[in-house]
Write a structure and sequence with these properties.
The structure holds 2 protein chains of 2 kinds.
Chain A lengths: L1 H19 L2 H17 L11 H18 L11 H18 L5 H5 L4 H12 L4 H8 L3 H18 L5
Helix pairs in contact in A: 1-2, 1-3, 2-3, 6-8, 7-8
Chain B lengths: L2 H6 L2 H6 L5 H13 L1 H20 L6 H23 L4 H70 L3 E8 L7 E7 L4 E8 L7 E9 L2 E8 L5 E4 L6 E10 L13 E4 L4
Antiparallel strand pairs in B: 1-2, 1-8, 2-3, 3-6, 4-5, 4-7, 7-8
The chains are: A mainly alpha, B alpha+beta.
Amino acid sequence: MEYLYDNYSGALYGVIFRILKKEEIAEEVLQDVFLKIWDRFENYDASKGKLFTWLLNVARNQAIDKTRSKEISKDQKTTPIEKVVSRIDNEEYIEQRIDGIGVNEILKVLSADQQFVVEYLYFKGYSQSELAEEFDIPLGTVKTRLRLAMQQLRITLGVTT
Amino acid sequence: MNIAEYISSGILEAYAFGELGEQERAVVEKNLAQYPELRAELQRVEEVQEVLLMQMAIVPRKAVKENLFQKIDAQKPETKVVLLQADQSNSSFWKFAVAASVTIAMVASYFAYDYRGKWINSQGQLTQLIAQNERVAQDYNQVNQRLDKIESDLKIVDNPDFKRVVMKGKEIAPESMAYVYWNESTKEVYLSIQNMRELSKENQYQLWAIVDGKPVDAGVFDNIAGLIKMKDIGNGAVVFAVTIEPRGGKPSPTMETMQVAGEVVKG
């Protein structure tokens, strides 16, 4: 378990924090996620995907559930001013604590459309349907853009398998 | 089903990102089981996603980990009880498997850490040893060279073909003394300093041979130990003498600076 935590807590916390945008709540969710992983490890089925994918899904579901609970006001994402302020705060915050380097550099290889999709889905904690709805893009387009972006990133990140 | 079209719709990315509802998921999972190409593509998608998210990791505060493991530790007795109930074998097997693999991982990390420490240590020792070895080799070379020099010097000193000319100190340098070893047939001239004072850097000693009443330049030398090979001075030298001259020497001796001189003993 400690091994799992040491290896994946950073990546999962990154995802959770980007969805929830509040440190205390994100930390709480991270703990819940690992307790859930500990508790339900037998549910992991390697034939359905990689371990990280499973962990990621547990984390995202837990975080998204949290946004729907009373602790997080739903209008966080819809009130423009609040959104801008929190985004600026968070970006600074993330920059200080971010583990990897050169993410912005990596994203530069993408077209503006692709960058936008990756940024909102992976950096800003949007789901595909939220993104489609809020920016009035057909869900299918979001999916194909992400597909193209990931294919480009596959080359940039040197994933050769 | 057109696999390429299916893949390019971005459904696998959505699946890997946990975006699909239960029904859609089930369909994808069914397709994954059926088409190996889909499975392979999903793996690539997952890989990219993992690398990307790892790059974007944010390290949580330390307290989170402590807190979490306290909670897990608190759960442990419960887990053990479950383990003892044989019919819950499936879930407890997994817990056991996780516990076992975590233990193995921890033991392995400990060893990795420990060995890394040892490795760094031995790396340091190795570097030190290599440096020491180089120094010893250098010393050995120097000693060897000196030994070779002494051996070759000895051959000359011991060789009866070499005449030894003792040059004694003149009035201005009564303590000084040097020898010339001269082989008349091979015309080789060697010089050995017994006692001569240090000179300033601008000056050098110069050896002269008196041949037919005239001084012949036999070369300059510094105050060093061992035999010094000098210039060939031809035949018929009767006297050898050393003067102090500006560095590089002069074509004719400055007689007032003569330090030592000695006659060649006939026969």
